[in-house]
UniProtKB/TrEMBL annotation:
Transmembrane segments: none
Catalytic reaction list: a (3R)-hydroxyacyl-[ACP] + L-ornithine = a lyso-ornithine lipid + holo-[ACP] + H(+)
GO terms of molecular function: ornithine-acyl [acyl carrier protein] N-acyltransferase activity
Organism encoding this protein: Thalassospira profundimaris
UniProt cross-references to Gene3D superfamilies, sorted A to Z: 3.40.630.30
Organismal lineage: Bacteria, Pseudomonadati, Pseudomonadota, Alphaproteobacteria, Rhodospirillales
PANTHER family: GCN5-RELATED N-ACETYLTRANSFERASE (PTHR37323), L-ORNITHINE N(ALPHA)-ACYLTRANSFERASE (PTHR37323:SF1)
Protein name: L-ornithine N(alpha)-acyltransferase
EC number: 2.3.2.30
InterPro entries: Acyl_CoA_acyltransferase (IPR016181), Ornithine_N-alpha-AT (IPR052351)
Amino acid sequence: MSNNRLSVKIAQSQDDIEAVQRLRFDVFFNEYQAQAYTDSHADGLDRDMFDEHCAHLMVVDNSQDGRVVATTRLLLSARKPADVPYIAASEFSIPLLGEKTGNYMEVGRSCVHKDYRDGNAIQLLWRGITKFVFAYDIDFLFGCASFHETDADKIATELSYLYHRHLGEGKTLARALEHMPMDRVPADQIDDKSAMASLPPLIKAYLQLGGVVGDGVALDDQFNTLDIMMTVEIAKVPQTYVKFFKKQADRLEMTP
C-alpha cells in the first residue's frame, strides 16, 4: 500500500533488517534515551533474540531513496518455535496464551521517525498488520504499548481512563507481573474525550479496533517507559472496520 511518497513492505534482506534495527536504535536510544545494557547495541543497531523469529514491517519514504521511517515486528504463533516465549510475557501474565487454542500475533518494537508522526506512517503500518491478520486467520492480536514516561502519576488520567473504560475481562485480562495500579482517578472525574486525545497513537489504534487493556502498568527501566498490555479479539472487531481493513489489506501488494 502506498500514498506515493510512503509505502509499506516486509523486510526481506539483511540490509532491510539492519535498516529497521537502525531506526529502532535512533528512536529508542538516541531520541528517548533507552539504556544500552549489552554490546549488541554498540554498532547503532537495536537487536535482540526475537528479531530472527519475527516478520518485520517497514514503511519507506520513496522520495528519500527508500529510507525506513517506521517499523513494527510481528511474532506469529503459527511460525514461532515452541521454546521461544512471547515478548510481553516478561512483563505480563497473559491468560489467553495458556489456552493454546487459536492463532495469535504479537505486535512489538513499533516506532516512527520523529519527522513522520503526522499519522500517515502508522496508518500504513496498521494496514500491513491487518494483512497478516487476514493471511494467518489471527484470533487475537496483542502487545505491549508504551507511554514515554516513568512516573505513573503524570499520566494518572490516561491510565485511569483506560482502566475504567477499556479494561479486559476473562482471557483478555492480562495482569502486570510487577503491578502498579492504573485506577488513580475516579471514573466520574475523567473527561473521556480529553483523555483519549492525549493517548499515544499506538494505543489509540488498538482502541479503535475494540482493543482492551490489561490490569496494571509495568515499568520498563531500560526503555524509560510505562507499559500496558493491549489485546484485540478479532471476532469482536466491528464488522464495518473488518470490511474496511479487509479491503485495504487486499490492495496491499505484499505476501506475508
